[in-house]
Specification:
With about 240 residues, the chain is an alpha/beta fold. It has a single domain, classed as Ribonuclease Z/Hydroxyacylglutathione hydrolase-like (Metallo-beta-lactamase, Chain A), CATH 3.60.15.10. The chain is built from five helices and 14 strands. The strands form three sheets. Strands 1-2-3-4-5-6 form a six-stranded mixed β-sheet. A six-stranded mixed β-sheet has the order 7-8-9-10-13-14. A hairpin with a 5-residue loop joins strand 13 and strand 14. The longest helix is centred in the first third of the chain and has 11 residues. The protein is globular, with a radius of gyration of 17 Å.
Length: about 240
């Protein structure tokens, strides 16, 4: 993990989404700036505990992409800390219709399938999903952008294929952390059969974006265990 910043992971009870609180380095009299990446369903209380215990000041909620299992608690956290939700501009439309954009090839929304069953079992329903009041689309005309949040800076890198606006967030290259959402997992990559997904685009992303990441980067994916770029380059069959 990065030596200059702190990362705390809260695993969502729905689909095990990894919600990451990334805090600026240092300890002083005032709170440290932080961002919250991928606010999955049911993470709000855990995030609030980390923020309070660590003396943090949230500056934004970031989403690696617009799927509901990565944005469900974004509105509540944005309201709590009076901050925006930021994600690639190409995925912002998904927030207005989070389940319609999760329909499979047959037109049946996935929320009525596995995701719906898991949400219902934990007391969530489509009717309780809220859209954040402030949504800021991240523009990446050259495929990447540096995002500054007070004392904390991350690099956003466009990595489409799972969705049109899928984004990697990089911290402290080349020896830091890559938050890869549903683009790269330990031993696998994201699915491309949902609306906005594209197999050819994902193959290009895997080769031209993921394949060129610094091998020394630790990878925190959107779901599942932490890995490294070096390990995935050596063992991931999709790379």
């Amino acid at each position: 993990m990065s030596e200059s910043a702190q990362v705390h992971v809260v695993v969502a009870p729905v689909f095990g989404t990894n919600c990451c609180i990334v805090a600026a380095p240092g300890a002083g009299a005032g709170p440290r700036d932080c961002v919250i990446i991928d606010a999955g369903a049911g993470v709000s209380d855990g995030v609030a505990r980390v923020v309070e215990e660590q003396g943090l000041r949230p500056r934004a909620v970031l989403a690696t992409h617009g799927h509901a299992d990565h944005t469900w608690d974004a509105a509540g956290l944005c309201d709590r800390y009076d901050i925006p939700l930021r994600l690639h501009a190409a995925d912002a439309y998904r927030l207005a219709d989070p389940f319609g954009t999760l329909s499979g090839d047959g037109g049946e929304a996935i929320v009525s399938g596995a995701l719906g069953q898991e949400l219902a079992g934990l007391g969530f329903s489509p009717e309780t999903y809220r859209v954040p009041a402030r949504i800021e689309g991240i523009e990446m005309p050259d495929g990447a952008a540096d995002l500054a949040f007070g004392a904390l800076t991350l690099r956003a890198v466009h990595a489409p294929g799972h969705t049109e606006g899928s984004t990697l967030y990089l911290l402290d290259e080349p020896f830091g952390i890559a938050f890869t959402g549903d683009v790269l997992f330990a031993g696998s990559i994201g699915r491309t059969d949902l609306p906005g997904g594209d197999g050819a685009t994902m193959r290009s992303t895997v080769h031209d974006v993921v394949g060129r990441l610094a091998p020394s980067l630790t990878v925190v994916p959107g779901h599942g265990p932490t890995t490294t770029v070096q390990r995935e380059l050596a063992t991931n069959p999709f790379l």
